[in-house]
What does this fold into?
Amino acid sequence: MEPTQTKLLDIAVELFAEQGFSGVSMRNIARAAGITPAAIYHHFANKDALYVAALEHVYASQAMELVTEA
It folds into this structure.
């Protein structure tokens, strides 16, 4: 995964957790990441795709923590 994509996912997870899906715009995420809104679409087709990827990112991180603890 590209560093920019990982950064976007980390930011999206935080914003979605704080404000909910409908409370966050692609513009909010772009601003927090320091990129243009159009740049997000290089990595994710739309907000729904970013949301699903953010959820997968969180679950994958949690799963890795569980595996390394075992």
Remarks:
- Residues 47-69 form the longest helix (23 residues).
